[in-house]
Amino acid sequence: MKNIIFFFIGIILACTSTMTIFASEKPSGKEPLIVKKCADFQVTGDGGSPEWKKAEWLPLLKLDQGGAEDKTRFKIVYSTKGIYVLFQGDDQKITTTYDKDFENLFMADVFEVFFHPDPTIPIYLEYEINHLNKELVLLIPNLKGKINGWIPWHYEKERCVIKKVHIEGGKAEMGAAIKSWSAELFFPYGLFNPLSNVPPVSGTAWKANFYRLDYDSGKMIKFAWTPINTGFHEYEKYGTIKFE
Question: How far apart are CA 129 and CA 52, in angstroms?
């Protein structure tokens, strides 16, 4: 009889332990991310503005086997003029040959942002930046999995992303050995025109995801805030950001 009692106690303890583990490992992006409001500031690439203290670092999860276990994270804040995003990631080398804007940057190392202001419409903004401070900006209509990107028209002045990259431990050159890199971005609300639900006000909710691609190992290694199964365009899986 005692053996039976101990057996059931063991099962209960095991289940309780498992529940505790699962409870402490909540997937990223399941709860709305509250985006703090800030004053506008100058983008420098290294996140040196005191306004960044209003936001916490959030991790990007490594999704693929292989490659280095590079710590990768991001922050986000917003102002009356636009949205600021800061990426930071450990790295070993600059793996890209793309030194011009609007090339296929995703075929090499990049940080990426996907903003989906109105989740009722399958159209969202995709942004990529690499170590060489080159960018790719696309408006994506995702119609039942049929995807194509449109480059913004009159991409200048209040419609242009302000961007800076900072390299630690090496030079900003193709193939250079480095220790880490960061990218600081400002997305003016004019860039999102004519998407609805822009500009956000207090309480506005968007869908979004934040990514990294790293090719140092010779193959694509994906990192994401909210995990996806196969590709970065699974917008139904994006997390929710809510503006303070």
Answer: 20
Whether the Cβ atoms of residue 79 and residue 39 lie closer than 8 Å to each other: yes
pTM above 0.85, yes or no: yes
Nearest Cα neighbor of 113 from 144, 135, 146 is: 135
Specify the residue for token string 């059931």: 8
- What Cα–Cα distance (Å) separates residue 173 from each residue in 23, 97, 98, 218? 43, 9, 11, 18
**63, two tokens:** 């999704």
- pLDDT of 11 > 80? The answer is no
Closest CA to 131 of 86, 81, 97, 83: 97
Tell me which residue has tokens 């086997």.
65
Place of tokens 């940057």: 105
CATH 2.60.40.1190, applies to 2-243: yes
